[in-house]
Design goal:
This protein has about 600 residues and is α+β, with helices and mostly antiparallel strands. It has 3 domains: about 220 residues, no CATH class; about 190 residues, no CATH class; about 140 residues, no CATH class. It has a 6-stranded mixed β-sheet, covered by helices on one side. It has a two-stranded antiparallel ribbon with strand order 2-15. It has a two-stranded antiparallel ribbon with strand order 3-8. It is elongated. About 5% of the residues have low confidence.
């Protein structure tokens, strides 16, 4: 059960529902499913493994039979005042129940107010509020769509097939292609049980089942309707992945390209008009008087490669950013190629974690080479810092949020065994690979610079207002954020509103545009800084190119107050905790990209001038 209001998922049997007569069997789940808070267990609904036979359907089909789930009219299910109050709270917070059949999540169909077309949402509402009274949806009409002609469908979703249901559907020559649920609320007094079995009936116009704070007696019932469909197996997930506003994504791409072309124009003007003129003037034969009148970026040539403060921390941050960049790039490419289908629950997150661990070799290599370039001598401790810096920050945030989830008995709380597995991946896979990459980086040696660094640092003149670090962050962050904010909306909706995101082709293009724009804006800001004779560009390049992370945080706050209805303090703590982790990751990645873009630019321009 999930709610976009509380953001606290709960297990299905956290409420007193009818259990299967065969007992409870929890599905073995992968790492990503557990981290998402999924807890898949068998429900008590019994559905025949095949639709009606091949005989022609009658002219007027009989209505689906109603079945009582676990009790009967004389012995209904009883919720005491504590259970009833728990159900009332869940209904107030608009919890959805998620059932799965043949690896297909149930969907609720309704008409769109704007277009009048059929729209689907995942799961079904636990209940509803009417005139300050709470009513529970205790009857489910399950509509199962099957394709009888898809007998050669050998494809699979890649996830669990949930036992006999999948075996029956494929062995008997048909496939289940859609699973709809139509919930309704039926009062106990309206349900009539057939003599000698668990079949039942109730009138079309019936009173709903109210949940009373003093205790509730009710029955859970269901009916099953098989509907023939021509939807092929390969398209069975289309209703979950349909996004009616694909044009908005194209608008996002066009908007992002405009940003990139704008930055490219500025860079072209700087490189072609300004830099070429400056380099030509600096390389020309100058008189002593002209040399004394020199100003701009050439004057700081003896200090531009002076190591920054805290070189070990700086190298670890850059190495972590490279590792995150490689992880995001590889994961998005795999998802774009269709290898990480949403039907494989948790596959995206599991793959991302494993790729992050593997890319530790890249983090160790780049951080060690950079540290040696900065004239550091303790490259082994730098490798260890690279291995623990980002994971420890993320682990601290995650552990705090996990304690909050434990306190609320939410299924989103990560079990101790899973925490131990994550620590094992870090200790036995990620950290050794970082050390291997660091060794290779140390063997390769430091980068070479075209200019020697002076022994005495040059005095930095007073800077103009727009080169103030805070102003630079605000100016530099707005353009990369403008390239991604539309796609960010859909990503936040997938995270916080229980929706699917599967347009990874668009995401890949936006990701490339983000990387290009961060590199370009970093070059522009560093060039202006050097023209102001400020050579402390190392940390500034990271902070300014990562400035879009500030706008991501501000947009997350805007999204919270305009799209979500979170009111509880615990839910706000969870929201801002996860947002902090996301913003920190975004900043480290874009900061590393901006640094390397500025570093390559500076090496090129200073290698093109003659220095006496």
């Amino acid at each position: 059960m999930t709610s976009s209001i509380t953001q606290l998922p709960y297990g299905y049997y956290s409420l007193k529902f009818c259990r299967s007569e065969k007992g409870l069997f929890y599905k073995n789940q992968n790492l990503g499913e557990i981290l998402r808070g999924d807890r898949i267990v068998n429900a008590g609904y019994v559905i025949n493994g095949s639709p009606p036979g091949d005989a022609p359907a009658p002219a007027a089909p009989a209505p689906p039979k109603c079945h009582i789930l676990c009790n009967n009219v004389t012995q209904p299910l009883t919720w005491d005042d504590l259970e009833s109050q728990k159900v009332i709270d869940r209904i107030k917070h608009q919890y959805y129940v998620h059932l799965i059949l043949d690896n297909l999540p149930c969907a609720t169909k309704f008409k769109s107010v704007d277009t009048g077309e059929n729209v689907y949402e995942r799961g079904y509402r636990l209940g509803f509020v009417l005139d300050d009274h709470m009513y529970v949806n205790n009857h489910l009409h399950m509509r199962i769509y099957y394709n009888p002609h898809d007998k050669d469908a050998h494809g699979r979703d890649g996830g669990d097939a949930h036992g006999a249901a999948d075996k029956n559907t494929h062995d008997e020559g048909f496939t289940i292609v859609r699973f709809e649920v139509e919930p309704s609320s039926v009062d106990l007094s309206q349900i009539k049980q057939s003599v000698g079995n668990n079949e039942c009936s109730f009138p079309d116009k019936h009173t709903p089942q109210e949940v009373k704070a003093t205790g509730t007696q009710l029955l859970f019932t269901y009916s099953v309707e098989w509907v023939e469909s021509n939807v092929p197996w390969a398209s069975r997930w289309d209703i979950y992945l349909q996004m009616s506003d694909v044009q908005i994504h194209w608008f996002s791409i066009v908007n992002s390209l405009v940003v990139v072309f704008f930055l490219s124009g500025i860079l072209t003007m700087i490189i072609i008009r300004t830099l070429r003129r400056d380099i030509a003037r600096y390389n020309a034969e100058e008189t002593l008087e002209e040399t004394l009148e020199e100003s701009g970026w050439k004057l700081v040539h003896g200090d531009v490669f002076r190591p920054p403060r805290h070189p070990k921390l700086f190298s670890a941050v850059i190495g972590s950013g490279v590792q995150i960049f490689l992880m995001v790039f590889a994961t998005v490419v795999l998802a774009m190629l269709g290898l990480l289908s949403p039907s494989s629950r948790g596959a995206l997150m599991t793959t991302g974690i494993l790729i992050y661990a593997v890319m530790g070799s890249g983090a160790g290599y780049f951080s060690t080479r950079l540290y040696l370039t900065l004239k550091g001598r303790e490259w082994k401790s730098t490798a260890i810092l690279t291995a623990i810096l980002y994971p420890s920050c993320l682990f601290t945030i995650g552990l705090f949020l996990n304690i909050v989830l434990w306190g609320r008995a939410s299924s989103g709380a990560v079990p101790f065994t899973t925490i131990a597995s994550l620590c094992a991946i870090w200790a036995c896979m990620c950290t050794p690979l970082v050390c291997v990459g660091a060794y290779l980086g140390a063997r390769t040696g430091p980068h070479t610079h075209p200019i020697r660094t002076n022994q005495i640092p040059r005095q930095i003149p007073k800077q103009v207002w727009y080169l103030n670090p805070f102003v630079s962050v605000l100016m530099a962050g707005i353009l990369p954020f403008g390239a991604v904010f539309i796609e960010l909306f859909f990503i936040l909706s997938a995270i916080w509103e229980n929706q699917y995101y599967y347009l990874f082709g668009f995401l890949f293009l936006v990701f490339l545009i983000l990387i290009i724009s961060c590199g370009q804006i970093s070059i522009v800001m560093v060039y202006f800084q050097l023209c102001g004779e400020d050579y402390n560009w190392w940390w500034r390049s990271v902070v300014t190119s990562g400035g879009s992370a500030l706008y991501v945080f501000l947009y997350s706050v805007f999204y919270l107050y305009t799209k979500l209805e979170i009111t509880e303090g615990v839910s706000l703590v969870l929201y801002f905790g996860y947002t902090l982790a996301m913003v920190m990751t975004f900043w480290v990645m874009t900061g590393a990209v901006g640094f390397y873009a500025a570093y390559v630019f500076i090496r090129n321009i200073y290698s093109a001038v003659k220095i006496d």
